[in-house]
Amino acid sequence: MVRKPKRWDRITELAAEQNFLLPEKPDAQALTQFLSAARIADPVRFPDLSLSIIKLLGSGEYVLQLPGEDTAGHFGLAVKEYAHSTAPNRRYPDLITQRLLKAAFAGKPSPYEKDELEALANHCTEAEDAAKKVERQVKKSAAAMLLEPMIGERFDALVTGVTEHGTWVRILSPPVEGKLERGYEGVDVGQMLRVQLIGTDVERGFIDFKRVG
């Protein structure tokens, strides 16, 4: 779950560009209203806006919520109390949730202690992040192989990430993400640019662009 948006300030800027005023402090309901209005106003460009918002919200995490404790809720879904579970053979957190439910329905004590659940939540968050990292690397290598014959071509692109490690853009056709190696000064998440593919490295999964407009 996402408890607090990573870059609310940039989300408010994107909303202002769409003539929608969001409050200075994070407000999940206001964000939901903005996205609903944006989807209706411009359904063609909404997927790009939605991707930018997801990036700006940041990564989710598994957390332990005990009965009676105040909860921040799931910001991205704009709900105060939240839990979910799917087939237990898909993810270990789902198995934990179903073990807890089984014990509760049977009127038995929890099969886990509080400290154990907190440790499991942290472990599952770290393990899922590691798995996603491997998945991203495989996809990057496949994308680099796909784009290798297109070096020198120009594309419309959406800025998807800006950190101290670099600036990333996602071209729209084919939908592939790469690093903006030149011309990244002053750009931010959600901006549309014109970029040129300047290099790829299939083994490392590198896709490099430069800004041309």
Automatic annotation (TrEMBL):
Transmembrane segments: none annotated. SUPFAM superfamilies: Nucleic acid-binding proteins. GO terms for molecular function: RNA binding; RNA nuclease activity. It comes from Methanocella arvoryzae (strain DSM 22066 / NBRC 105507 / MRE50). The lineage of its organism: Archaea, Methanobacteriati, Methanobacteriota, Stenosarchaea group, Methanomicrobia. It comes from the Archaea. Residues 11-105 form the RNB domain. This is Ribonuclease II family protein, C-terminal. It holds the Pfam family RNase_II_C_S1.
